């Protein structure tokens, strides 16, 4: 099959993070500081990514501001001609640091928020974070960079949806991503506590629809649905190994950010192979690319070109088989697994990210 080059690189510079969000999708086992790629390693990864065709670089984590070499990495990526996005909690973003990053070519900031009020947001972040986020948003707007606010939605903050939209407006966000929690990594431990109710999702829909209409041309709103409640799965990653690659802090290259959850998948590292080899030829990137790997019911399904059989990580986590149809799909023989999860009472306490 013809394989297109990747468009985006998610560079997870570190797993270190000042927050303790219970919906964290990073793996249970985080990469240690000692195992992190060096500055020179990241220069090489960024250069190789650009050579491969990557145009968008998302510097993420954990908290990328925890890396003292962040300014050099921004300069290197922007010097290669890449559009550089900083994905941050905002903690540690001071005026001098932001001015320096802008000077070096930073093009966009994506800021996370956990709730609409200080009390709720700090509770869900497990840290005093809310005021830092307001300050960070103000700095980004002052710098003239475009700002995206990303809020992960779940049972413990769905009731604040209208206020969250108002918060994004107050911050002057150009884009608001309202993403219902995806259950990978740490978030999976908290699934029953985080799963929104059907009533919460029904209440959210008109609020989001009205906001999209009211704010058209001023603030773009993206709403990522709660897929467990849907009849068909999400087109995860727009297909496996199709558009984007992720490099984890220790150099492991992932076809999707959650792919380390698939314990049957042999992952490659930038320490042992080139990005090009990994993208085009590695076992992990070719495993579920295209349609050859599909079994029934996906193999002959009229929707397979639209959703690519759903999410491989979810298929593995819920059935133990990464080549299974995503069990969210109403045509999957395993849909009962998802239906059973939706009947869970949803009362357990949240386990904060450690
Ligand atoms: Fe998508 Fe497979 Fe379900 Fe068809 S059977 S809708 S391709 S997940
Ligand atoms: Fe890994 Fe969907 S999260 S394929």
Automatic annotation (TrEMBL):
Cofactor(s) this protein cannot do without: [4Fe-4S] cluster
Pathway: Cofactor biosynthesis; pyrroloquinoline quinone biosynthesis
Residues engaged in binding [4Fe-4S] cluster: 17, 21, 24
Biological process, per Gene Ontology: pyrroloquinoline quinone biosynthetic process
Annotated catalysed reactions: [PQQ precursor protein] + S-adenosyl-L-methionine = E-Y cross-linked-[PQQ precursor protein] + 5'-deoxyadenosine + L-methionine + H(+)
Keywords on record: 4Fe-4S, Iron, Iron-sulfur, Metal-binding, Oxidoreductase, PQQ biosynthesis, S-adenosyl-L-methionine
UniProt cofactor note: Binds 1 [4Fe-4S] cluster. The cluster is coordinated with 3 cysteines and an exchangeable S-adenosyl-L-methionine.
PANTHER family assigned: PQQA PEPTIDE CYCLASE, RADICAL SAM DOMAIN PROTEIN
UniProt similarity note: Belongs to the radical SAM superfamily. PqqE family.
Biological role stated in the UniProt entry: Catalyzes the cross-linking of a glutamate residue and a tyrosine residue in the PqqA protein as part of the biosynthesis of pyrroloquinoline quinone (PQQ).
UniProt name for this protein: PqqA peptide cyclase
Originating gene: pqqE
